[in-house]
Amino acid sequence: MTVVLPDPALNDSTYGLTPLSWVGMEGIDLPITVVEPGYTRQLHARIDAQVDLPLAHVKGIHMSRLYRLLNDVPPEQALSPLGLRRLLQSMVDSQEDCGTRSARLGFSFDLLLRRPALVTQDLAGWKSYPVVLEARLVDGSFVCKMQVQIGYSSTCPCSAALARQLIEQGFMQAFGRQPDLRAEEVAAWLHKHASLATAHSQRSQALVQVQVSEDSEDFGFLALIDRVEKALATPLQTAVKRADEQAFAALNGQNLMFVEDAARRIEAALVDYQNAGIQVRHLESLHPHDAVAFKTPLMSETPFARLNGGVAL
Length: 313
Fold this sequence. Notes:
It is built from nine helices and eight strands. By secondary structure, the protein is an alpha+beta fold.
């Protein structure tokens, strides 16, 4: 092809003569490979890529160059902090004639983990953990943050206390005037009436953000998820039989928590993580609204946070 094609980015006049903070693309579909100890999987990710445009007289960046850089990454190459830093530097270099000094990348994907049942041997199921990953290279300074959403169950301590009071009152009405009680009588009453009032429980969500060091071999997704689930003690289950459901009921009864309790449990578990941010949400079964608690703001200015229905956090 010998015909010179027009390039409005170079030849058309610029409107406004102002620099722009970020210019690029959102929602690019690409495969990525996550490799961590005991886990290797290729996943579908949606990727955002942007650079700054500091020169007011430059009409537009070279977006196709950004796309080609992303597309040229081998799908089997493991995602890593160092790999992201190199890719960000290549993005900056590709826009040298635009005066670009900074770049950022955002990844959103679901991490699939196989989780065993609580009690039943050889029973397991798959669980999805939504992840948002953001990396920035600003004037040579690299910052990388990862954000994971973890589901769990929460049982309200207040409703549990109120339920216990009603059971206590019912027991006293049945046996308050009997001077002597046999264990069999009490057991029979409990079998029939111990659930005359129950505490309300609900599916709940923890959104946890930590900073990742540039020299880390991997992002530590699994280690972070395991630590948060251990702290909360009531992670959502996959495949269950009745014995597993009973064990889950016991975990909920032994781990009553307000939304404040959940946030503090996670905070204590992440004490050795850098710049940890926490948001917990209890999807109330008593109210038509949610209960929330925060510890350190999360990615408030990023367009990459597609968790929670695409609303930036």
